[in-house]
Specification:
four-stranded mixed β-sheet, about 450 residues, disordered N terminus, binds calcium ion, globular, single chain, mainly beta
Length: about 450
């Protein structure tokens, strides 16, 4: 976990030495470790303020947060949402001493070439301290990060051209004044990282009806990810109570879990991995927490990212939901296991909103979009029939400091529920829903520092 000391302004005063002397020192150091820019210099893309679905901080992320490159390579940051900076820091160095993009708006870019070997942490000035919006560039010699698939990003993918779906004027969600329900104070049991509890045997019959039920006991589980160690951990829940845990596979650097669903039809949910730099996807087949196989999925064109997986066309196979960071369009890629067999445009999202989850809220058998506005705390449900939006309803507004992470049916009453995360206390809370209405709430387990909850 990165120390927030770096964000204290007092650091700047530690450099009360002659600035030219420091410049000389830095110049010398750079010349010692500097490398000529090789002919094969590459550009690595990082998205700023990704409204990624289901991550703990929907809009407060660099994606990927860690990039490993060679001397001479470039890193290009692109702002998916505004109000963020890309600002360097390091121990003993003042904030922004190496680089500082300043506050930028959606669509802006910032590029920097790294000629020296080293590790270069950076953060977003407004959101580093509050929300751990930090990133790292590692410049190494030798072989670059062995991305497991070398799926090159295709230029011009046969993307379904999202026909001129007019942006719905959905944003009219009037924020309810914080009604009743004070946020449930997180009860006791802050539990540490998963102990290697033996897997609870669950009779492997039939396909799971609950997304993210790794041990197939009928209850959705929490999938945790540690961006520093790249480890994953599954917390088995009984409704809102954490009863056991297991280690899942570690992710390769540069990859993140973009969704969880059963792709090969063996009854166990699998990881969908995405690499934002190469645009590649992969399926990691799991049996509970053990990885038993892997396959390449389709590659994504630039600006598109996987924000969730669900079976939109009800053919029994989970599909990709893609989101365009620039146009705010959505597209569904129909999958047959790891192969793409078709596609359709979904509705465009209103500005400021992201898809925080996919679940069938109105019980018509089709998964719906759970929309979340990280700035206002507003929620909305967009009812879909396959890829067509057939209705919308306002959901409850989250109190500040809380973030919507996803939806799943925790109390098994047939209605998907909201999962909330408290950015300050790291507590989680389940809001039990009846369609778009909140009917009750209960505290879930508290996340250990350094871990984030992958959305449902
Ligand atoms: Ca379970
Ligand atoms: Ca499907
Ligand atoms: Ca539905
Ligand atoms: Ca429920």
């Amino acid at each position: 976990m990165k120390s927030l000391e770096f964000f204290k302004p007092t650091l700047a005063t530690t450099l009360a030495i002659d600035s030219w002397r420091l410049v000389l020192l830095l110049a010398t150091a750079a010349s010692l470790v500097g490398y000529p820019k090789p002919a094969s210099a590459a550009t690595f893309n990082v998205t700023v303020g990704v409204p990624t679905v289901g991550r703990v901080m929907p809009a407060f992320k660099f994606k990927p947060s860690s990039v490993t490159i060679h001397p001479g390579d470039q890193v290009k940051w692109t702002w998916a949402t505004g109000g963020h900076t890309v600002t360097s820091y390091s121990s003993g160095m003042p904030i922004g001493s190496k680089w500082d993009s300043g506050l930028r708006n959606q669509g802006a870019t910032f590029t920097r070439t790294f000629n020296s070997v080293g590790t270069f942490p950076y953060y977003c000035t407004p959101h580093g301290g509050c929300c751990n919006m930090v990133g790292t560039i590692r410049v190494v010699t030798g072989t670059p990060t062995p991305t497991p698939t070398s799926t090159p990003r295709p230029t011009s993918t046969p993307m379904v051209t999202p026909t001129g779906t007019p942006r719905p004027t959905a944003t009219a969600t009037p924020r309810p004044t914080a009604t009743a329900t004070p946020r449930p104070t997180a009860t006791a049991t802050p539990r540490p990282t998963a102990s290697a509890t033996p897997r609870p045997t669950a009779s492997p019959t039939g396909t799971p009806t609950v997304a993210k039920d790794f041990n197939r006991d009928g209850y959705p589980d929490y999938l945790l990810f540690n961006p520093s160690s790249l480890a994953t951990v599954i917390w088995y829940l009984n409704n809102n109570v954490h009863v056991a845990g297991d280690h899942g596979p570690n992710l390769p650097a540069g990859w993140n879990v973009a969704g969880v669903a059963d792709f090969n039809g063996d009854g166990y949910p699998d990881y969908v991995l995405e690499n934002a730099n190469v645009g590649g996807t992969r399926i990691w087949y799991l049996r509970n927490n053990d990885r038993i196989g892997t396959a390449s999925g389709p590659s994504l064109p630039g600006q598109w990212t996987v924000v969730g997986v669900a079976d939109f066309n009800r053919d029994g196979n989970p599909d990709y939901l893609l989101f365009n960071l620039s146009s705010l369009a959505t597209v569904i890629w129909y999958m047959d296991n790891n192969g793409r067999i078709g596609g359709n445009p979904g509705p465009d999202l209103p500005s400021g909103w992201g898809v925080a989850g996919l679940a069938d809220f109105n019980g018509d058998g089709y998964p719906d979009y759970l929309l979340y506005n990280a700035n206002t705390g507003g929620t909305r449900i967009w009812y879909l029939r396959n890829n067509d939006r057939i209705g919308a309803a306002s959901g409850p507004t989250l109190p500040s400091v809380w973030t919507l992470v996803g939806a799943a049916d925790f109390n098994r009453d047939g209605h998907p529920d909201f999962v909330l995360f408290n950015r300050t206390t790291r507590a989680t809370v389940i809001w039990y829903m009846n369609n778009n209405l909140r009917v009750a709430g209960a505290p879930g387990p508290t996340l250990p520092t350094g871990w984030e909850l992958i959305g449902h």
